[in-house]
Please model this.
Amino acid sequence: MDLARRVQKLTGILDVAKALTAERDLDRLLARIVEEAKRVVDADRCSLFILDQEKNELWSKVAQGLGTTVLRFPLGRGIAGVVAQKGQVINLPDAYKDERFNPAVDRATGYATHSILCMPMLDHEGRVAGVLQALNKRSGAPFDVEDEELLGAMGGQAAVAIQNALLHEDIQRLFEGFVRASVVAVESRDPVTAGHSERVAMLTLGLADALPRAGATAGPWRHSALTDDERVELRYAALLHDFGKVGVREGVLVKANKLFPSDLEILRARFDAIAAALETEILREQLTVLEQEGRGSPRLAELTARAAARRTEIVELWNFILQCNKPSVLAEGVPARLGEVAQRTYRDMAGVSRTFLTPDEVEVLSIRRGSLSSKERLEIESHVTHTFRFLSQIPWTRALRNVPTIAYGHHEKLDGHGYPRALSAEAIPLQTRMMTISDIYDALTASDRPYKKALPREKAMEILRDESRRGFLDRDLLAVFTEADVPMLMKKAT
Ligand SMILES: [Fe+2]
Ligand SMILES: [Fe+2]
Model:
């Protein structure tokens, strides 16, 4: 081989090496190595086997002609197994003349192996990381020393790249496992929202994927396609967006009515005591009348009627309180009436005078809308800050470094009235805007709480449209969400 060609081939290997170190996707990397190795030694086929140190096995994902099924076999078996075990090259002009060659593969695939060049792939410390095997030199001649040299050089570069990719896969698996575990943690805290994180992640990615296909509908986002890394980043952010709920008291998280169940229980017991006290009071009066005026006294009947009226009144008061306890919008005048009820007193068993309602109860029952007091609302809202703090503690890889920021903005509104930071539109990234739409959609349509009705799709879309008209949500992204019918796409995908 002349010098010029040799230099050209070696330069080619360097180029490949550069490309290989940049490739972190293992499948693509293996396919690329096999392709380049084939080209470098001018072989008809090429296979790559990776050494599994723990199991003492070789495995292959890319064995050309065999598809991409994973093949495993023990160290020492076949040509590749021997090469991996001994760390030495095997170069056979005619495979069938060597007893280490296993003709079963040829029989299974219908391929006819002639020459084989099988090289150990050595990492930078000289340890065997795998095996590169080239079959049938195209010229028909055996592989020569120069092929050995070239394939060896390729193998060295490939080994390092593969180790990097495997390490990268390990890191990904680690993050994946960690994210899954976190989702389990938050959803076991608030089981009624189970599945919310996963659905928000699916809807958000569905929207992100619809974006490049949306054309003019996407408006300024027309050319915004996410990279693979950005998709993973967005998925993690969506899966973990509500993680901070683990920092919110469970009672507040699942609060259906204004009073906590235990507080309502106390109130109920008090009203029982009030009813009993009134009953006793009237009985006492009746007894006095009976003793003083005898059975025929008209006051007796009067007292009986008064007792019945009082009983009815207490039942009505109790029903009124139950009504106030519901999260629906409070009618005009209700807080004033609650104030009046609170003023009323009764005597407890010890004869101590007590009010029907405590000031705290009046305050809670006077919540104008929903079930949460302003303090509790703030506590729920704090989940976003908890999420951000938690996510910021994690040493994300460079490719995933925006996970905390993307999740942090999921309750912000484009008009600057969201929480917790009241960000302006410019400060809310595309990824967050997509997640916000998905989050609201799922919150509206999920049948996740016994006391909350799941809205039908059309009604939810109407609310989203209204929010975008009022400048809260991204109009263009919502248009893509609607046009591509992302919820339906997601349903089909599952
Ligand atoms: Fe949230
Ligand atoms: Fe959410």
